[in-house]
Amino acid sequence: MRKKQAGTVRRVLQAIRRYRFSVVLSILFAAASVVLTLYAPILTGRAVDQILGPGRVDFEALKKIIFEFLIVVAATAIAQWIMNILNNRIAYRVVQDVRCEAFSHLARLPVGYIDAHGHGDIVSRIVTDIDQFSDGLLMGFSQLFTGVVTIFGTLFFMLFTNWQITVVVVVITPLSLFVAKFIAKHTYEMAKLQSETRGELTSFVNEMIGSQKIVKAFGHEAENIETFCEINDRLAEHSLRATFYSSLTNPSTRFVNGLVYAGVGIAGAIAAIHGMLTVGQLTMFLSYANQYTKPFNEISGVITELQTALASAARVFALIDEPEMKAEPENMPALTETDGRVDIEDVAFSYTPDQNLITDLNLHVEPGQRVAIVGPTGCGKSTIINLLMRFYDADSGDIRVSGHSIYEITRHSLREHYGMVLQETWLKSGTIRENIAYGKPDASEEEIVRAAKEAHAHSFIKRMPKGYDTELAEDGGNLSGGQKQLLCIARVMLSLPPMLILDEATSSIDTRTEIRIQRAFTKMMQGRTSFIVAHRLSTIREADVILVMKDGHIIEQGTHQSLLAKNGFYAELYNSQFELS
Q1: How far apart are CA 317 and CA 191, in angstroms?
Q2: Each residue of 555-575: pLDDT tens digit?
Q3: Three-state DSSP class for 418?
């Protein structure tokens, strides 16, 4: 645990190094602020010594001291103001850098990481955990250094005035350090559990909000509430325990403060009686006793907050440290042109090492062919799409496009040559126009409208409040499932790449619209290599070749009529769709 925490601290310091000039300035102004603050009690002590009794007040000396005191107070306020500006700038710039690094790293992570982790947990790391880190970092800059300098500065001033009383303060100090260490250790453990459970809760809530209609359709509200309450109870327990340990800070440090103040008061009074101190110096010492103990309160609170911040930072750095997709060499060539020929040679792939999915897969696709992929759920249809697009890399074997191995060209150039329409639609927050032009931002208005018309989306777009300028909610929440699918199809219609992937692309569209879309697809697929994944076999009868998959293997291959004539697995699948229960 300590080693991991130390590693997190090093990472934080590395993130701060970029702003070391601002850090140095902040330290200088903090030191100036502390020195000026510690100088004020000396002036107070001198002022007390000028008041010896009735008729024995040196007003001229008091005027000079008061004027000097006002200058010190003003200078202290200015130094603290500049220090706080610098601290805010450092903290928020560092957090900005870490958040940008985390998000950009997320874009470079393999799709497998996204599939294997809760989306809510990932969001929690980038948003909530970084906010927690920000709060702790800001408090650390604002109070930690100032507190430490105040402690050592106070000891120096007291030692310079009377070393015997200073020894009393130093002897009691270790008790405060012991208390702070005990609280910090337990707070970090609870803060870590709190952050992890918060991420779990965020993930669950995100999942439930996204699938609320399904939850209601299956009457699963009670079970979900029960699961939510279980996670929420654990979060409450971890939060309460973290709060409990952090709440020990104030009373514990105040107890130690009282001991220090009492020790200084008793020792100072004895020294004053014996003429070792003046009344003004005793006043100064009591003031220093307060100033000396105050940072322990602040530092204990800061340490508690820092433990929470470090626990959150550790989760963010864990995301940043996740291995990226295999890096491409700088001189990796790009795929500039393709005729649409695709060859899959002896490909093997599995999502988990102990469970084979695809083995010895071979396929040759001629330019412009329409290839339909059918088979039962889990047979590997969508996996082939993942491999063609290099969302996942094959464990062995090779996939070639126009004679080029896809592992020897850039991923970006490969994906530029594919147009993809998936069963799960995705639209970004923005206008309908921006969503259609997502793959071709420089498209003209005429091109966008033509693509929408070809996708049979133009009519419903014109009925929207602002037509093509209508703002869409998150993931197109103000559209029906079919309308979202039509916009996704229009997006591909606009860019028209040389190869197409249609994975259940018409699953959310009514039969009448589907017939129109199939006609549009037929036009779009002319001269383009197309891979069509479909469960409704009636939609792929016009394919040039149909691949029938089962358990990761192509077990049958041919046209619709030839496969029916074989009376094999495809015929069984096809006929089963028309059987009456």
Answers
A1: 16
A2: 888 888 888 888 888 888 777
A3: strand
Are 93 and 19 contacting, i.e. CB atoms less than 8 angstroms apart? yes
Quick check: 40 and 74 in contact, CB under 8 A? no
Kindly report, residue by residue over 75-107, the tens digit of the pLDDT: 989 988 998 888 888 888 888 888 888 888 888
Domain 94-320, CATH class in plain words: mainly alpha
Q: How close are the terminal C-alpha atoms of the chain, in Å?
A: 60
- DSSP result, 71-92: HHHHHHHHHHHHHHHHHHHHHH
- Name residue, tokens 């001033």: 157
Give the 3-state secondary structure of 153-216.
Answer: HHHHHHHHHCHHHHHHHHHHHHHHHHHHHHHHHHHHHHHHHHHHHHHHHHHHHHHHHHCHHHHH
The answer to whether 144 touches 299, Cβ cutoff 8 Å, is yes
Q: Which residue in 240, 12, 21 sits closest to 134, CA to CA? A: 12
30 close to 149: Cβ distance less than 8 angstroms:
yes
Q: Return d(Cα 120, Cα 209) in angstroms, integer.
A: 11
Confidence of residue 581 (pLDDT cuts 50, 70, 90): very low
- Those residues whose C-beta lies under 8 Å from the C-beta of residue 408, and which sit 6 or more positions away, are 332, 333
Is 492 in contact with 500 (CB distance < 8 Å)? yes
Question: CATH fold of 342-576, please?
Answer: Rossmann fold (3.40.50)
Q: Which residue has the tokens 């100064």?
A: 284
Our CA angle for 270, 271, 277, nearest 5°, is 140
Domains of the chain, by residue range, sit at: 94-320, 342-576
> What pLDDT sits at residue 264?
74
In order, the DSSP letters of 98-120 are: HHHHHHHHHHHS-HHHHHHS-HH
Reported for 376-379, long-range contacts at CB under 8 A and 24+ positions apart, including other chains, are: 376/550, 376/573, 379/549, 379/550, 379/551, 379/552
- Its pTM stands at 0.65
Question: What pLDDT, on the 0 to 100 scale, is given for residue 142?
Answer: 67
Most confidently modeled range among 74-83, 235-244, 465-474? 74-83
CA distance 409 to 413: 7
pLDDT in tens, 347-386: 888 887 777 778 888 888 888 888 888 887 777 788 888 8
485 CB-near residues (< 8 Å, 6+ apart): 421, 425, 505, 506, 507, 508, 509
